[in-house]
Specification:
Layout lengths: L1 E6 L2 E6 L4 H7 L23 E4 L6 E2 L10 E3 L3 H16 L15 H8 L23 E3 L9 H9 L5 E4 L6 E4 L15 H5 L5 E3 L3 H8 L5 E6 L1 H4 L2 H4 L9 H11 L3 E4 L1 H16 L7 E2 L4 H10 L13 H12 L3 E7 L3 H5 L6 E2 L2 E2 L3 E4 H10 L21 H4 L6 H14 L11 H4 L4 E8 L2 E9 L1 H11 L8 E5 L17 H18 L9 H8 L4 H4 L11
Parallel strand pairs: 1-5, 10-11, 10-13, 12-19, 13-16, 18-19
Antiparallel strand pairs: 1-2, 3-4, 3-5, 6-9, 7-8, 14-15, 17-18
Helix pairs in contact: 10-12, 10-16
Bound molecules: iron/sulfur cluster (2 copies) and FE2/S2 (inorganic) cluster.
One iron/sulfur cluster (SF4) binds next to helix 4.
């Protein structure tokens, strides 16, 4: 049912049941928000979104107030603007003035609103913030002084990831965001997904920067630097450089890395090809009742180890794409320094896992997220516009469309099904090249199909709260899936914790996925079984024991 409302003296339509903010946004009217998160229940914590409504004595938060018929709303009256300005001035009273040094300088919501609201001086005396920066985690840095208490990190971690690393501590003007027992992040229950860093409006949460160690390796004459670059990063860099979202920059990045001095650049998606092939082999030989759970996402692996230890035995005995490819490269040349370039923040923590080593030596030495990659390119003064696309190096330079699909949730399953088709029905495998059910924009996707005279059931889940709920019901399911793919980040790696940060993230995620699907369509090699680089890998294949992952039960500090 439609409501007729008036906003800034212009009649518009609103829908019964939506909030004022939703009605405004649907009609293209912008109101600033800080604590609001699309798709989550509003908390009304920050008061940034207030509007003036005829008949209401006070200003009301548009994010949490339901719209009503015949409301007359002012979104930018002098009173409203003054109230928002006061919100920002109060936040700045306890916020450091070190924007120049902040990783979010230029992409900070507080900075942006201070600018938009014309805040030109410190209204209230600065309150010293005693908090120290927590750099204890492999993946994430926490700077509580920059925190504006919006609670977005708490909600994404609790409601979307069901991890609950953070919570409010105390009340009033001594309130802060803390971890359990105020312990550092490295001994919290954090699984390193980085979704809180994507959600944070300021520089209070950000990636542990690896650009310095990569830089040092480049200037070490005794090592060769190898980078692994994938198309998920490739289709995400453009937006960070102000270009069209989704534009594939992978081969331009290859050229940029060569210019910077990286010696060898391999195709990270090849790791996906090999993983899909190994997993398909495993599935083709499994017994009827067995369900395998995916192992490609390090955030998910840590989640299972901490929260679902009873499911560890269901994790497939296959290393992650990064670890498989890293091992192959290291076995070929022990003196290289390998850098994974990735949309994923949890890869930084994966570096410390025992699976990322051969004979006690790391196979991948550093992980740069998409955001760090862009900073790294800028640091070296590379003008992207002047570069021509370049190819990755052989022998690990080629990936099939299947390897590309690992970038979004459901793509890994599709890649494995292509490999499985090749094993079980090599002549008819072309029929399973586009699986729209696994490409849908849904948190839990199921796909049932027949292959090799058997019915198969694959499930692809993204977001850890969804995965936790699904796993809780697994025991009572009549027909259990053959394969369960889980990606910690909602939507998969295209929405990884290391990706560019936007407030209206959804449209960027869609553009990235669309681009990956188009790249797969253009790619003539579809199945990992047809990839010459996989054949080469098979020939120099590491001993099976080097491909076996290690999972450990962890005690989470809850
Ligand atoms: S750390 Fe960031 S997301 Fe969390 S409450 Fe503080 S400002 Fe908000
Ligand atoms: S990285 Fe993920 S698990 Fe860790 S605190 Fe942030 S949202 Fe929670
Ligand atoms: S965005 Fe509405 S109260 Fe914070």
């Amino acid at each position: 049912m439609d409501f007729n409302i008036e906003v800034n003296n212009i009649p518009i339509k609103a829908r019964k049941g939506e909030t004022i903010l939703q009605a405004l946004q649907r009609n293209g009217i912008s109101v600033p928000t800080l604590c609001y998160m699309a798709g989550q229940l509003p908390t009304g914590a920050c008061r940034m979104c207030v509007v003036e409504v005829d008949g209401y004595p006070g200003l009301i938060p548009s994010c949490s107030h339901p719209v009503e018929d015949w409301m007359k709303i002012q979104t930018h009256s002098p009173r409203v603007i003054q109230a928002r300005k006061s919100v920002v001035e109060l936040l700045l009273a306890s916020h450091p003035d070190d924007c120049l040094y902040c990783v979010r300088n230029g992409n900070c919501e507080l900075q942006r609103y201070a600018e938009e609201l014309n805040v030109r001086e410190r209204k209230y005396p600065s309150r010293a913030h005693p908090a120290t920066i927590d750099k204890s985690s492999y993946s994430i840095v926490r700077d509580p002084a920059k925190c504006i208490l919006c609670g977005r990190c708490i909600r994404v971690c609790e409601e979307i990831q069901s991890v609950s690393t953070f919570d409010y501590v105390n009340r009033g003007n001594v309130m802060y965001i803390g971890t359990t027992l105020d312990k550092p992040m490295n001994i919290s229950n954090c699984i390193d997904c980085g979704q809180c860093a994507i959600a944070c409006p300021t520089g209070a949460l950000y990636e542990k920067d690896n650009t310095d160690i990569v830089h040092k390796a480049l200037y070490n004459k005794n090592v060769k630097v190898t980078a692994l670059i994938d198309h998920t990063t490739g289709v995400s860099v453009a937006e960070e450089l102000g270009m069209k979202p989704g534009k594939d920059m992978t081969h331009i990045i290859v050229a940029a890395l060569r210019k910077i001095g990286v010696d060898i650049i391999y195709n990270y998606n090849l790791g996906g090809d090999i993983y899909a092939r190994e997993m398909a082999k495993l599935l083709s030989n499994k017994n009827e009742e067995q369900t395998y759970i995916s192992t490609s996402c390090p955030g998910w692996i840590k989640f299972v180890e901490e929260f679902l230890p009873e499911k560890i035995t269901m994790l497939a005995p296959v290393k992650s794409p990064m670890e498989i490819l890293g091992a192959a490269i290291k076995l070929e040349n022990n003196d290289i320094f390998s850098v994974a370039i990735t949309p994923c923040m949890a890869k930084k923590a994966e570096l410390a896992r025992p699976c990322n080593a051969i004979d006690g030596k790391e196979v991948i030495n550093a992980a740069l997220t998409t955001r760090e990659l862009v900073r790294f390119i800028r640091l070296h003064g590379i003008d992207i516009d002047q570069l021509e696309p370049e190819l990755t190096n052989d022998p690990y330079g080629t990936a099939t469309g299947a390897g590309l699909l690992f970038g979004y949730a459901g793509g890994e399953s599709e890649a494995i099904i292509r490999s499985l088709s090749h094993i079980l029905e090599p002549d008819t495998s072309q029929g399973k090249l586009k699986i729209s059910k696994l490409r849908a924009n849904k948190p839990v996707k199921e796909y049932t199909f027949s292959l090799g005279g058997k019915q198969w059931r694959f499930v692809a889940i993204s977001g850890l709260a969804n995965a936790r709920a699904y796993m809780a019901n697994l025991g009572t399911m009549k027909q259990k899936p053959d394969y369960i793919e889980v990606m910690a980040c909602p939507g998969g790696c295209i929405n990884g914790g290391g990706q560019p940060i936007h407030k209206d993230n959804d449209k960027y995620i869609k553009a990235r996925q669309k681009s990956i699907i188009e790249l797969d369509e253009k790619e003539s090699l579809k199945s990992p079984y047809r990839n010459p680089a996989v054949v080469k890998w098979e020939q120099s294949r590491p001993d099976d024991s080097l491909l076996k992952p290690v999972f450990v039960q962890r005690d989470a500090l809850l």
